[in-house]
Amino acid sequence: MHLTIFMLGSRDYPKLIQDKLTQIYSAGVKHKQLDSDTIDVAEAIQCNRLSYYERTEPENDALPQIIQRISKLGFRDAMGSKAAEYKVENLTLIVTPDLVFEKDFVVNIYPVSTIPDSLLPGDMLYTNACLFALDREVGVVVYVTPDGQQTQYFVGKSNRMFEQVVRRARILSILLGERKTPVIEPSQYCLNCKYNDRCFPQQKDNSPQLLEGLFGLGKK
Ligand code: SF4
Q1: pLDDT the model gives residue 1
Q2: CB-based burial label for 87 (10 Å; 0-12, 13-18, 19+)
Q3: How far does residue 50's CA lie from ligand 1's centre (Å)?
Q4: What CA–CA distance (Å, rounded) separates 208 from 188?
Q5: Which one of 10, 45, 60, 169 is at 20 to 30 Å from 85 when CA atoms are compared?
Q6: Which conformational region is residue 195 in: left (phi greater than 0), alpha (psi within -120 to 50 degrees), or beta?
Q7: Is 210 exposed, middle or buried (0-12, 13-18, 19+ CB in 10 A)?
Q8: Which is the closest atom of ligand 1 to the Cα of 198?
Q9: How many alpha carbons lie under 13 Å from residue 209 in its C-beta half-sphere?
Q10: 3-class DSSP state for residue 151?
């Protein structure tokens, strides 16, 4: 039904909408313009292989992901969020905290469908990196659901956690510079990752002969 309405006439409306939103999102992000010595902390924290593909051979996001990303950009814009840098030798790390309180603490706000039971590791690492980039001691992670529930977690500054992020960022930077694809990092995120087919190519064989061979079916 929807398809009939959208395809009215000769125009492919879903594609037109998706292309327009992708264009709007691309204009709002700087990742593709970053050199290999500059790594967004979010890129370092998530699967490095995913970050590598996003820079070198990106695939378009599905519509819900594009809308989610545009919402995040709009939210940061409304908050007046600004990117901050942290330099380690030739490597530059970039973070964009949602809110920064003068000489005090930083806050990152995450919309979620259900409130998590504990602080999510990636959000902890990201907020910790914000503390180093902005020279703050305390971070606050806020989770908010669409129906208005919310919870907060505090993040204290940790050298050890930051070193892990720097190490991952450095590996990604080197691999980007050398155009070498990072290894697969299997996790539950792989199931919904848009690069799943590149990492785990499926080799389906529906031929009945396979089952016959395995179970001796069809033998007389
Ligand atoms: S499928 Fe998994 S390993 Fe491959 S890029 Fe995605 S998250 Fe990384």
Answers
A1: 45
A2: exposed
A3: 6
A4: 31
A5: 60
A6: alpha
A7: exposed
A8: 4
A9: 2
A10: strand
pTM for the structure as a whole: 0.83
Provide the 8-state DSSP code for 202.
-
pLDDT profile of the chain (220 residues), mean per 10: 53 78 71 85 98 93 85 86 94 95 89 95 98 95 94 96 98 98 96 95 70 60
- Reading the block at residue 43, the tokens are 């890129």
**Residue minimizing CA distance to atom 5 of ligand 1:** 50
> What distance in angstroms lies between residue 161's CA and the mean position of ligand 1's atoms?
22
Ligand 1 contact via 181 beta carbon (within 6 Å): no
Q: Which structure tokens are listed for 41?
A: 């902390």
Distance 199 CA to ligand 1 centre (A): 6
Considering the segment(s) 2-192 as one domain, its CATH architecture is Alpha-Beta Complex (3.90)
Q: Positive or negative CA dihedral for 181, 96, 20, 33?
A: negative
Atom 4 (ligand 1) nearest CA:
199
